[in-house]
Design goal:
CATH architecture: Alpha-Beta Barrel
Shape: globular
Order of helices and strands: EHHEHEHEHHEHHHEHHEHEH
Organism: freshwater metagenome
Distance between the termini: 28 Å
GO biological process, one term: glycerol catabolic process
Pathway: Carbohydrate degradation; glycolysis; D-glyceraldehyde 3-phosphate from glycerone phosphate: step 1/1
Number of domains: 1
CATH topology: TIM Barrel
Radius of gyration: 17 Å
Keywords: Cytoplasm, Gluconeogenesis, Glycolysis, Isomerase
Strand content: 15-25%
Bound molecules: phosphoenolpyruvate
CATH superfamily: Aldolase class I
Helix content: 40-55%
GO molecular function: triose-phosphate isomerase activity
Number of strands: 8
Strand order of the largest sheet: 1-2-3-4-5-6-7-8
């Protein structure tokens, strides 16, 4: 089984219009090197209105950053005002789609069933889902972390083949660590990521578990990335706030140089 290549993903959320997106990518173009792209896969998850611009920039400048989206609908087309179909993203060469981010679940009421439909739809359109899971502070304090994460992962991968699970990405993001400046300790993050991998093994077999990439997300910065990434079951990071600053995001991508 080849080693898992880490994936560092910048989730821009509802930030950076298409002009700002271009200037951020232009900085990253100079900051990141061929060695970085050999060591780490990198994706940026732009707002929908930026994606065409991001695609044009990355392809014309031959920058090895993958194009990402933050969400999509599960249907192919139809009367779903305000939604974006996965096929529309695939047409823009989107490679990775974040599915079931805690902000989608908590603010927009996305359920495990909807998240599972989205995961399936992303695969059906030739893209890779990044399935998010994670517990609230109350759940962590109530020792309900494992139950919450197991339920979300189970729902998200149940309908998938072992090969699909091997090819996907799971992001463990404790909700209390998102945008708060509070990072899970590298031991706690490792412990939950190892738990997720064990659940994947139970459900889809050892090969799928050994291959699936598991990211940690929650206040990742240039100063804590190396320690988190040194954990054996952490295969990358899903980065929110720090991804808006090209210098800081580059420091995270270059964690191995720290
Ligand atoms: C996120 O929203 O996925 C995230 C991890 O945000 P932040 O890095 O700002 O905590």
């Amino acid at each position: 089984m080849p080693a898992r290549k880490p994936l560092i993903s910048g989730n821009w959320k509802m930030n950076l219009n298409h002009f700002e997106a271009t200037s951020t990518l232009d900085k990253l173009r100079y900051l990141l090197t061929k060695d970085d792209y050999e060591a780490v896969d990198v994706s940026v998850h732009a707002p929908f209105t930026d994606i065409r611009t991001v695609q044009t920039f990355l392809e014309s400048e031959k920058v090895s950053i993958s194009i990402g989206a933050q969400n999509c609908h599960w249907e192919t087309n139809g009367a779903f005002t305000g939604e974006i179909a996965p096929g529309m993203l695939a047409k823009l060469n989107v490679a990775y789609v974040i599915v079931g981010h805690s902000e989608r679940r908590e603010i927009f009421g996305e359920t495990d069933i909807e998240v599972a439909r989205k995961v399936t739809a992303v695969f059906a359109n030739g893209m890779t889902p990044i399935l998010c899971c994670g517990e609230t502070l109350a759940e962590r304090e109530g020792e309900a972390t494992h139950g919450k994460v197991t339920g979300q992962v189970h729902a998200g991968i149940d309908a998938l083949s072992a090969e699909q699970v091997a090819a996907m990405v799971i992001a463990y993001e404790p909700i209390w660590a998102i945008g708060t400046g509070r990072t899970a300790s590298s031991e706690d993050a490792q412990q939950v990521c190892a738990w997720i991998r064990a659940k994947v093994a139970e459900m889809k077999g050892a090969d799928a578990a050994a291959a699936v990439r598991i990211q940690y997300g929650g206040s990742v910065k240039g100063t804590n990335a190396a320690e988190l990434m040194a954990q054996p079951d952490i295969d990358g990071a899903l980065v929110g706030g720090a991804a808006l600053d090209a210098d800081e995001f580059a420091r995270i991508v270059q964690y191995r140089l720290a």
